[in-house]
Amino acid sequence: MIDLLKTKIGRLRILAILEGISLLSLVCIAVPVKYWMGNPLFVRLLGPVHGTLFLLFLFNTLSVGVEQNWKFREITWKVILACFIPFGTFYIDKKILSKL
């Protein structure tokens, strides 16, 4: 895991995993607690965290894509699309980012 911090692609992979985990936490923990127990605290806490990680992933994808000279039609658009599909960041990490 420490090796991932040494490269921009590694940091992008970490962001992908964190963004996916934040979405899982939001959907599987915070939203049920809000609607079943009437307590919106977790949604208020996790919502902005997930939003921030989402934007960081998006901007870092564009930054790494430009820096690494990714062909937009082959890699960049797939990675960007993944952050708009629920849990797509896990898939894109396994299928594309881990091989770069």
From TrEMBL:
Subcellular location, record wording: Cell membrane
Alphabetical UniProt keywords: Cell membrane, Membrane, Transmembrane, Transmembrane helix
A Pfam family it matches: DUF3817
Regions that span the bilayer: 12-35, 41-63, 75-92
Residues covered by the DUF3817 domain: 10-96
Top-rank taxon, per record: Bacteria
Membrane topology summary: Multi-pass membrane protein
Gene Ontology CC annotation, any one: plasma membrane
Full protein name: DUF3817 domain-containing protein
Organism for this UniProt entry: Chryseobacterium flavum
